[in-house]
Amino acid sequence: MTKKTLVETKLNGEVVEFLCEPRQSLLEVLRDELRLTGTKEGCLTGDCGACTVLVNGRSVCSCLMLGVEAAGAEIETVEGLAHGLELDPLQQKFLEEASLQCGICTPGVLMSAKALLARNPHPTEADVRYALAGNLCRCTGYDKIVRAVLEVAGQAR
Predict the structure, then answer these.
(1) Is the CB of residue 9 less than 8 Å from the CB of residue 72?
(2) Distance between first and last Cα of the chain
(3) Residue 98: which domain range?
(4) pLDDT at 156
């Protein structure tokens, strides 16, 4: 039996503690231990971006990060975007622009877009496409996703 480690982190603005095995990925911890199932499991190799979360403001594939590495970090998942019933502007624009279909990639795309807009509030289309290059979508063709991110950036101006 593997000894579990106690980890304290800030998750979606709240300090949380959890127990995890040293080999468990952050993705496994989020979904299985903390029951935050918005972060999706796709490839488990860091290639699809479905599991993207923000760690200290940077987008990270949570399947490639160990849960124990979250100690002392600030983690934000898709569940942290909305404030009560008020959607984040990105979530709202994704709905308005029909920028989602099956929904597997959507949480990761939203988190990557959030990270982009935090560091570059006025991105070009090329900036958006580059920032989302690690997020694979097999349904939308990306145009509606890119348009939604650019419209949110335009509203912020």
Answers:
(1) yes
(2) 54
(3) 89-156
(4) 60
